[in-house]
Amino acid sequence: MSDSWYDEEALIYPPITTMVEVTHYDTEQDSWGRRYPTYLLEIQTNDISFNLPHSKVKRRFSDFVWLRKRIVSESPVHKRNIAQLPKRYLFSRIDREIILEREKGLQLFLEETLKSETVLSDPCVHLFLQSTLSLSDIEEWLKSSKRQPSSRIILQGKDLVMSEGIPVRTSLRPSSRTSNNSSLCASTISDDLPSLPVSPVSAPINGVL
């Protein structure tokens, strides 16, 4: 078989690639006055497992903790080989060095985790990555017996997550933004207490929705 055949195949079927970038966005404050960093999660992909080729959503560190627990609970095999999250700092001083360490760690976690077809078959993962639903909304969606397909939810909100601006996330609690990105300077911050526990028993998932 000639090399030109392979070249033609490469043009017709480009390699599947998914690019993930996690960057620190801002510091926010919850209704109890606790401050926490938020991160912008951007995805560009030609993988048909995803509903959108490009998306940007805002998440906090405890959201990633929830996601990892969710993945492990749905697939026991991942208990042994799922990537670790970066170190957690409770009620610590969060400075530029820690923020940069966190960005790299969260990005590596997603890059490694999203290589798994099992992970990509979980609609909750896609709602986390490409919708502005909060974790409580995702949990409520799981419990609903008449829930919409996750793909429909994501496509309905595509204008929010595919825009050039920063997507507005559905908050778990009322929050207010700090006036600027002063979080890159050393300041006393609660490094994300868990915003929502993972339910021990999840509703069944009927394939990729």
Describe this structure in words.
With 209 residues, this protein is of the alpha+beta class. It has a 4-stranded antiparallel β-sheet with strand order 3-2-1-5. Strands 4-6 form a two-stranded antiparallel sheet. The chain is globular and about 50 Å long. The protein is built from 9 helices and 6 strands, in the order αβββααβααααααββ.
Question: What's the SSE blueprint?
Answer:
Blueprint: H1 3-12, E1 18-29, E2 35-45, E3 54-60, H2 61-74, H3 78-81, E4 92-94, H4 96-113, H5 117-120, H6 123-130, H7 135-143, H8 150-156, H9 158-161, E5 176-177, E6 187-189
Antiparallel strand pairs: 1-2, 1-5, 2-3, 4-6
Short structural summary:
With 209 residues, this protein is an alpha+beta fold.
Strand content: 15-25%
- Major beta sheet, strand line-up: 3-2-1-5
Number of E-type strands: 6
What global shape is seen?
globular
List the helices and strands in order: HEEEHHEHHHHHHEE
Rounded to an integer, what's the Rg over CA atoms?
18 Å
How far from one another are the termini? 40 Å
Number of helices: 9
**Poorly predicted runs of 5 or more residues:** 169-190, 193-209
The averaged pLDDT comes out at 77
What level of helicity do the residues show? 25-40%
Largest sheet: 4 strands, antiparallel
Helix-strand category: alpha+beta
